[in-house]
Every structure is written in structure tokens, then in C-alpha cells.
Amino acid sequence: MTSTTSSLAHLKQQGAFPSEQAAVLASIENLEKIDGKIRCMLNDGKEQMKAILTSQVAKDFGSELKQSYRVKVTDGILNTDGENNHILVISSLEVVATATHVAPKTGVDTPAAETMKTPAPAVRKPEAIKTPVSKAQPISTLNPYIHGWSIKAKVVNKGAKRTYNSKAGVPQHVCTIEVVDEEGTSIEATFWRDAADKYFDMLEEGKVYTFSRGNVKPANKNYNRTRNDYCLHFDASSFVEECDEHIDASAMTTRMNFVAIDQLQAFVDKKTLIDLVGVVTSVGAAGSIKRKSDSSELQRRDVTIADSSMKTVSVTLWGERAESDGETLNRMLMAGQNPILAVSACRVSSYNGVTVSAGMRSTILIDPDLEEAKALRLWYESEGASATLAPAGEGLVTASKPGAKKRYSDIASMQEQAPATPDTPPLYATVNAMLASVNPDQSLYYLACPENNRKVTEQGPGEFFCEYDGKTYPHAVRRYIATARIVDSSGILLTQIFNDQAEIIFGKQADRMHEIRESDPGVYKAALAKSTWNEWTMRVKCQAQEYNGEIRQRYAIVDVKPINYAFETRRILDQLIEAH
């Protein structure tokens, strides 16, 4: 269908394109291309208007647009700045001529086409960007200088409603959400006071809303969980409305820019948030930590993933994600599957070398329909499942906090640098060592609650009481807490081994080891003896503790993996080169 020609003056008067077939013919002036963003001045021969290209239009036409080119704008949104000047956000255009000469603004109503001295040669017309006619504009076009904006976006994360005291001491409410639009651009929005009370119950994750009459402000990178330079603030004058028309909300997903696991070192202990994808190779037991603020329990679960860089990393899931997604991944792994896990907005820390923490508002996808996930699946099935994988932080020197000490490569060095007082930060060291001996007469394991791993007391058949939560459970599980001696070429060390690491070293779960112990003590002792004199790469924690007025160093194995001989060879060669 042939489009009708409109003018900038008519556009200002109407405030929007009057129909789907309307278009504005104008020339490009004062063209600016800065960091992928394109700004210009449109001139149709009678009127001028500032314009901004959406990120998609800038991507498609950025290399082609030049000064004085003539374009046909077929869709856009009209806004005003703080000085009430009109700004057109262009979401669809075509290049119709490569050179124009436009007469300056006069009172004479001369058609713009007649001002061209000679007909310009036609050029290839890129396919116009098809976007639904709507007053909403892309999130990528928002900035503090645009007023009267409106966006249409899906709520992907919704935080709790929090209470704070105003300067006058009056309790007020605030809540924060994360939204994403059809382009995959996300932004954080905070609702203050009356807005929080009015819209908190209405906003639901997964639903699409129109947001308007808010303020655009620079984002605080210390707290913002998106990679957007701006954030939104809404107050009593703001307006939010659920979209009635049918919208494919599944298309509104945050764009993920994945970082390879072997590149995580560059982001350790920095404010930068990263996206991560990998094949799940193991899922740790569910656990919890106690919040300092209110002493409540926060659930956590560690998931180890790998990618084609031949590296692995531990990703910590928190809260409901640890319970729901963590358990889903565990069931899939137990069923013989190795699911693909994609996580957005993660922070990388130096704990245990390199570890990743998924935030409360991180997006977690299991077996997502992404090209990166498909490529990882092919890699894992063809070579990854049988490949030798190394932790991303293995062999690194870590100094994450003031006072933290670097890693050491042998037992003697670690003992020499052990913390002297209980208030000294613990020392972590990676050593290549062997299990020298395990006393078979020790308790070796304890009865634990299946939900929180806390110790339980057997009160009778099918009755196990957990003092921690005051509940009685019909069954319990056994978990290792063993003491053993490890040895390397520099010395010997008495250390504790906890459940996850003991299962790897002993090759059996604690319940199975108990059955063997009860049925045949000789086989039980042989099973423990079989676990000795095998080489492992161990991550050992050393912490000073006071006992009966005496300072003692307590050692515990917090991670254990088979030795990666290829990595160890490279590490030793690097040490030799550095020494000479």
C-alpha cells in the first residue's frame, strides 16, 4: 500500500504519526554518531526537528546514513525535552536519496522535493524496520533529557516491598523491579512511597505493562543489577497499566552476553555483572547461612558448570532459586542428564580462586533455546564428557581482601604462614597431596536432617529429632565428618574432611559406608585403606581457634579434585621460566 506524505509541522501538531501509511520526507543534518548511538536534525524544507534513531535502526542504517541524505520516516514516537523542544525517536525509516539541497526555513510553502537542484540517483532501500504502532518507545532510547516517554515491558524480577523511615521519621515503602522490552533491553525501576503502595500488588513477574510519567536517572553501579546506564524512578504521579492486547511475552527476554569460564579472572571482585552459560557437571548439597541483619536463614546451593574452554566454575544459587532450580538441576543430574544452565547478572568473586554468585534478581534458565546452549550441548556430547576439566581459579594468586594471603603449593609453607590469632582472616591454600591414613575407629559420620543437614538425635524407630528447627523427622541421612592425615613432599597434616569432599575421596556415600561397617568390619577397613595413597589437588582452609586458653590451627579440606597433570606440567614450567 502506498504511503501518504506528512510533514514535521503536522507531526508536531498531531503528536504522533496519524496512520500506518503516513510518512515524513526529510533530509539528514547535523549527523552525530557516538558509541553506536545516532542523533541528527531532520529538515523537510519548512521545519526542523531533532531526532534519535533506536538501537535497531542505528544498527541497520548506521553505516549507510550520511550528511544530507534524504530519508522517509515511517514510524516513530514524538517526545519533548526539558525546554519543550520536540524530539522524534525514529523506529522505522527508508533511505530514498543520497544527496539533497534543502531550502532554509521561510514563510513560503515550497514542497521539499522541488528544492532539489537535480534528481538524486536512487539507492538500495533496506527493508524498513517493522514495529507495531504504539505510543511506547524502546528502553534503549531513554535518557534523563527526554520527557513524556512511555515504555512497554515485561516484569522479569520483582523484589520485596521494603520499609524505610523518611527524614521526618515516618515509615515509607519502596520496591524495585526489573523489566525488559521486545529488543531485549532491561532496566531497573524503583517505586517510592505511594507508587509502591499502589502498584506493588498489581505488578507480577511474567506480565507486560505500560510504564509512563516516571523519571530517568543515572544508575548506581554498586547496587544496580542490570547493565543499563540508567534506572527508572516512579512516584505518586506515575502511571502503570497492564497491557490488554495480546503480546508475545516470551519474546521479551534479556539479551545475554556470555563470558567464557576461562575469561572470568578479568572480572574477579569487580562491580561488573556478567552472564554465564555452561554444562552442569555437579550439584552440591543444599545448605544455608544466617543473615547478620535479622538472623534468618538464607538457603544456598552450589552448582558446578563447565564450557568448551575446558574450565569449570562453581555458581552459587540463593534463596528460592537454591531450593527450586537447585533441586531441579539435581534431579536431572541424578537421572543421567547434564542440563545446560544460563545465568544473567552474576558477580565474580575471588573465593576459592574464582567463584560466581547469582543474585536474587538474576535470570536463571535451564536448557534454554539459545545458540550458545546448543553449541555447548554438541561440545559436551562429542568431547566434553570425557575431557579433563580444571577449575577456573586453579593456580591463581588471590588477594581478594586486605590482609588476605596468597596460595601456597605445599603443606610446610601453609603451616609456616598459618593465622596466629582467631581474629586473623583464614588462610586458603591449594596443595597436591595424598591421603596418608584414616582412623577406622573414629565416628566418621553423623545422623543428619535430610532438609537442613543439621545433626539429629534418634528418639525411637522412625523418629529423629532436630534441635535446630525443633521438628521430628521419619528418617535421617548420614553425612561424613572425618579426620585424616594428608601428606606431600614437604610434610604431613591432620585435617578434617566434610561430606562432599569425603564422598569423592572414599568413593561412597556415608549411608553405604555405614552398611559395610555394620555387616563386615574387615571390608570396611579395606575400603578406607583403598582410599589412601591416591594423589589429589586439595583446597585447604586454615583458621586459628582458641581452645581452653590455647591457640590452635584447624585445617579442613574444602575442595578436592583429581590432579590435572597437563595443568601441573604447565604450572611447573611457568615457575621454572619465572625463576630463570
Number of strands: 31
Percentage of helical residues?
Answer: 10-25%
State the helix count: 10
Q: What's the story with the biggest beta sheet?
A: 8 strands, mixed
Strand content: 35-45%
Which structural class best describes the helix and strand composition? Answer: alpha+beta
Average pLDDT, to the nearest integer? Answer: 81
Assembly type of the shown chains?
single chain
Shape: elongated
Radius of gyration: 31 Å
Low-confidence stretches: 100-134, 397-406
The rounded distance between the terminal residues' Cα atoms is 76 Å
Question: What would you say this structure looks like, in words?
Answer:
- This protein is of the alpha+beta class and 580 residues long.
- It is built from 10 helices and 31 strands.
- The strands form 5 sheets. Strands 7, 8, 9, 10, 11, 12, 13 and 14 form an 8-stranded mixed β-sheet that branches. It has a 5-stranded mixed β-barrel with strand order 2-3-4-6-5. Strands 15-17-18-20-19 form a 5-stranded mixed barrel.
- A hairpin with a 5-residue loop joins β5 (70-80) and β6 (86-97).
- α8 packs across α9 (521-530).
- The chain is elongated and about 100 Å long.
- The chain starts with a strand and ends with a helix.
- Residues 100-134 and 397-406 have low confidence and may be disordered.
